[in-house]
Design goal:
alpha/beta; 42% helix
Length: 253
């Protein structure tokens, strides 16, 4: 399988990232998934991919620890060489994140800095460290949020960082044009995952409210997003560049 393309999915051990990794593996893409603390969960995802004929490995990454990113890039290089005899990869999916409902008047500088490091600064500099390892003609998919279009009280820090990611993505598309790397944003809506302490999944009233305001009549599940990311990494999607693709089922239209 050494000739397969290779994808890196940050936060690929669970939730949306796991769905992305599984869909990419179905496209015969080798997958590097990262996890922050839950190694057992990451290993289980790797096993699930490999049990269906794919190839994957897991690496630890705390994307909010900016000083560790250069070391992580070296670990990626070594792991790809050992696993697939490869020196470069093709697809970077910046998915890892944290969630919390923080009313503006109660927000602290510490919370702001934590969200900035994970959702913006970490993504910015991780991408910078990994681009030299990317093949020409690759793809970068940055995960944003529907909350950059509509306002959900308590998400001012999170959504502001995601807005920064959307601007950053357009600049990336421009500045990486010499390598023909397409850069796009996928902006999910409310998805039933562990995110933000499973706020959507574990709250029937929230689910009902969101479903009532969504054209498709329900909340999202991880499988709604994984296939979109995999498509953006396919040959058929090569002419899509510098776009924000909202995947919310049509919420608050």
């Amino acid at each position: 399988m050494a000739n397969n393309k290779i994808a890196i999915v940050t936060g690929g051990n669970r939730g949306l990232g796991k769905s992305m990794a599984l869909h990419l593996a179905k496209q015969n893409t080798n997958v590097v998934i990262t996890y922050n603390t839950n190694e057992a969960e990451a290993n289980a995802t790797v096993a699930e991919i490999e049990n269906t004929g794919g190839s994957a490995l897991a690496l630890q990454l705390n994307i909010g620890n900016i000083a560790s990113l250069a070391t992580f890039a070296q670990a990626v290089s070594a792991a790809m060489q050992q696993k697939w005899n490869a020196t470069h990869f093709d697809f970077l999916i910046n998915n890892a994140g944290i969630g919390a409902t923080i009313p503006f008047m109660q927000a602290t500088e510490e919370q702001f800095d934590n969200f900035m490091n994970v959702h913006f600064k970490g993504v910015y500099f991780l991408t910078q460290k990994l681009v030299p390892l990317m093949n020409d003609g690759g793809r970068i998919i940055n995960i944003s949020s529907g909350t950059t279009r509509f306002c959900n009280p308590g998400y001012s820090i999170y959504a502001s960082m995601k807005s920064a990611i959307e601007t950053f993505s357009r600049y990336l598309a421009k500045e990486l044009s010499e390598k023909r790397i397409a850069v796009n944003v996928v902006a999910p809506g409310a998805i039933e995952t562990d995110f933000n302490n499973a706020f959507v999944r574990n709250n029937p009233q929230v689910k009902s409210m969101i479903a009532a305001n969504t054209a498709m009549g329900r909340t999202g599940v991880p499988e709604d997003i994984g296939g979109i990311v995999a498509f953006l990494c396919s040959p058929e999607a090569g002419w899509i560049n510098a776009q924000r693709i909202e995947a919310t089922g049509g919420v608050w239209l």
